[in-house]
Design a protein that fits this description.
Elements lengths: L6 H12 L9 E6 L3 H5 L6 H26 L5 E6 L4 H12 L9
Parallel strand pairs: 1-2
Helix pairs in contact: 1-3
Length: 109
């Protein structure tokens, strides 16, 4: 499942989970965040260490935002996946789906 952390996404995800997925099905929630300063890094204005620190900070902040969203939405136990948008969101979704061997993808916006 993917989310933009909005109230509407929470509603859609609750409906999906209530639809009767098998109880033993692994559930993952992907949040792809924007890292605008990395585009600046391409111009050479950011060193490798700064890039790493920047991404770690954004990843940590995004993880907290996702955890709060899951709590507000009442989604229960769900694997959280947070990653920067390196290509397109669709590309990130495809890479993640392949990595976690997803059988079903739910996109909520």
């Amino acid at each position: 499942m993917t989310t933009d952390l909005s109230e509407h996404a929470g509603n859609a995800l609750r409906r999906c989970l209530a639809a009767g997925l098998p109880g033993d099905a692994a559930r993952s929630l992907l949040y792809v965040f924007d890292a605008p300063a990395l585009r600046l890094a391409m111009s050479g204005s950011m060193g490798k260490e700064e890039q790493r620190d920047y991404l770690e900070d954004l990843c940590r902040e995004s993880g907290l935002e996702l955890a709060q969203f899951i709590g507000r939405a009442g989604l229960g136990q769900i694997r959280r996946i947070v990653q920067p948008e390196e290509a397109t969101v669709v590309g990130e979704l495809q890479k993640t789906a392949d990595r976690v061997k997803a059988d079903l993808i739910v996109v909520s916006t």
